[in-house]
Amino acid sequence: MVRLLTITTCFIMMMLMNSAEIFGQKTGAFTAANDIGKSKLKGSTKFDEPLQVYTLTGSGLNMWANTDQFHFASVKMTGDFILTTVCHFEGKGVNLHRKMGLIIREDLDPGSRYADAAVHGDGLTSLQYRSKGNDVTSEIKAGLTAPDVIQLERKGDTIIMRCAKKGDPFTETGRMSMAFNAPVYAGLFVCSHDTAVIETAKFHNFRIDVPAAENVDGYQTPSASRLELMDVATGIRKVIYATKGHIEAPNWSKDGKFLIYNSGGLLYKFPLDTKAPVKINTGEVVNNNNDHGLSFDGKMLAISSSTKLPDGRSGSMVYTVPIEGGIPKAITKDVPSYWHGWSPDRKTLVYCAERNGDYDVWGIPSNGGEEFQLTKSKGLDDGPEYTPDGKYIYFNSVRSGMMKIWRMSPDGSNQEQVSFGKYNDWFAHLSPDGKSMVYVSYPADVPANSHPHNKRVLVQIQSVNSPEAKVLAYIYGGQGTMNVPSWSPDSKTIAFVTFTYGDPNY
User: Fold this and answer.
1) Residue 495's CATH number
2) Which of 163, 180, 209 is the last residue of a domain?
3) How far is 498 from 438, CA to CA, in rounded Å?
4) How many domains is the chain built from?
5) Most buried among 380, 422, 439, 490, using CB within 10 Å?
6) What is the per-residue burial (b if ≥16 Cβ within 10 Å, else e) of 468-505?
């Protein structure tokens, strides 16, 4: 009797492992990994934590008609969210209709209602969906084949698919309506389209972003944050710090050993070895914003902090303080003033300031003195930053009708536009080798003179000798993402912050 009970128990456990959710072991962002349907060959989900890459293997006859067989890595979600990933198959594959991608699924039954962003082995890409349980699958084919990056968004009852080739902006390739029962299962999938074959797909830069609700002010209701590093050559991103608190604007130290960011009016040093934030002493200057950065020699820190003047006016002023911390020295005398750049010789600071009702680029000796005006164009001029050789100051300006990147000589002469295209471009940061710049681009429906929180934005890269820009990252962010110089000293990596109103560990 005991022997029979043991055999029966083992059989039940095996059945549960083969057909139901496997919980208890969190794999990266996911809380479950499942074979959906009666696949003969067992699939798997693995997460390479150092590289933050997911590898999914799976078999299965198909994801079509009225029933599915595939491997699924998932987490339960409610409300609105955005799934984004870079993905590719490994190997040539067996069946041209093998599939991989992003999926939102009502349950784990083979005939469940679902919507997915699917990339086939032959490059066919589509928004697939099953509107009714156990019904026939439908699809909206994309005009783009074999994309490198795909996105699936749930916004109320609307499902939106976007995709892109590496370096290009997203294109919306499908949109449909489907009201899911809550919660849903969201995540990654792979299907071999052959019951006798296991296929492998790799996914990196996978993110689940929960956007702000309508009319949420990012200042009044700040989001959770992820501090990320991106290898510029490969495009691979890594989250090195996730927090429910709100952090902004990482600087990179000149020795490459730590970052500096602001949070709650304070500045923090973030060592890349311990990954334990340490507050920087700035005395009574404790209303610091995201306009701060290190001198080229790495010894001094310029900061911008809200201050009340004797005449009752208040606003941001520019200060300097040793990198070790201490009592900041006030440099500017008027408000508002927002620091953005040091000259390579450490003798001059440049900043955005409102004077006489208009925002322009101004400069001032770094030890204090009289400020001098560098731009006089009507409208907003912002984000000035010196090139490493001191030959130019780059800045952004609305003078052409959109916010674009411009540059000028250090004395304010020879002002010329250097970024083009259909986006509003903000805060150009020059690589230490002087060859490239990166900047944040907002969609054209955001007012040109505004850089709000909580937007789908692009991080773009552009050679200083070319007008052509390429997309490095598709992120949920905006204000605070990358306001200040954020290149690693070897010009290989950039740092930035992304935001979410969900769990930042997704």
Assistant:
1) 2.120.10.30
2) 209
3) 16
4) 2
5) 439
6) ebebbbbbbbbbbbbbbbbbbbebbbbbbbbbbbbebe
What are the phi and psi torsion angles at 19 (to 5°)? -125, -20
In the block, which residue shows the tokens 């009289």?
A: 370
The arrangement of strands across the sheet holding 337-342 comes to 337-342, 348-355, 358-365, 372-373
Query: Residue 10: what are its φ and ψ, rounded to 5°?
Result: -60, -40
Question: Are 205 and 243 part of one and the same domain?
Answer: no
In a domain, 470, yes or no: yes
In a domain, 30, yes or no: no
Look up tokens 């927090």; give the residue.
243
Task: Give domain status of residue 290, yes or no.
Answer: yes
Same domain, 253 and 383: yes
Q: Identify whether residues 350 and 489 lie together within a single domain.
A: yes
Supply the Cα-derived Rg of the chain in whole angstroms. Answer: 25
Phi/psi for 13 (5° steps) reads -65, -40
Residue 29 lies in a domain: no
Residue 356 structural domain: 224-500
Give dist(CA 114, CA 194) in Å, integer.
21
Same domain? 203 vs 256? no
2, two tokens? 């005991």
> In the sheet where 224-231 sits, what is the strand order?
237-243, 224-231, 493-500
pTM of the entire predicted model: 0.93
Q: Are residues 118 and 184 in the same domain?
A: yes
- pLDDT tens for 268-304 read 999 999 999 999 999 999 999 999 999 999 999 999 9
List CB contacts of 147: < 8 A, sequence separation 6 or more: 119, 125, 163, 164, 165
Assess contact for 42 and 18: CB atoms under 8 A: yes
pLDDT, tens digit, 9 for 90 and up, residues 421-464: 999 999 999 999 999 999 999 999 999 999 999 999 999 999 99
Look at residues 102, 140, 98, 90 and name the one whose alpha carbon lies nearest to residue 123. Answer: 98
